[in-house]
Design goal:
3 strands, single chain, elongated, alpha+beta, three-stranded antiparallel β-sheet, 98 residues, 3 helices
């Protein structure tokens, strides 16, 4: 049974919470598959390496990156797992949030 058929069946039965859980689970699977595909293509292209810190990013988490100049920002782990767009020499720390 396809995901669409499952959602239709849950909708018909009035099981909205279960429908939301199914949709969220499928979205997470798709996001992980996209992140894995993007990471593989970046590695194959030779773009992943010296610009990436020795840190494993969880695609399902968000991270706060603190820079040596005192600034910081929040970034999605799915993006950071594929490409770390910052100069590691300028990064003070990285912490998982949420």
């Amino acid at each position: 049974m396809s995901v669409l058929d499952q959602v239709k069946a849950l909708w018909s039965a009035g099981k909205f919470a279960e429908m939301d859980e199914l949709i969220a689970a499928e979205a997470t699977k798709e996001a992980q598959a996209l992140a894995d595909t993007a990471a593989a293509s970046v590695v194959a292209a030779g773009e992943h390496g010296e610009h990436s810190p020795a840190f494993e990013f969880d695609p399902g988490s968000d991270y706060r990156v603190h820079f040596k100049n005192g600034c910081s920002g929040e970034y999605a782990g799915a993006v950071l797992a594929v490409r770390f767009p910052f100069d590691p020499a300028q990064v003070e720390s990285v912490e998982r949030i949420g």
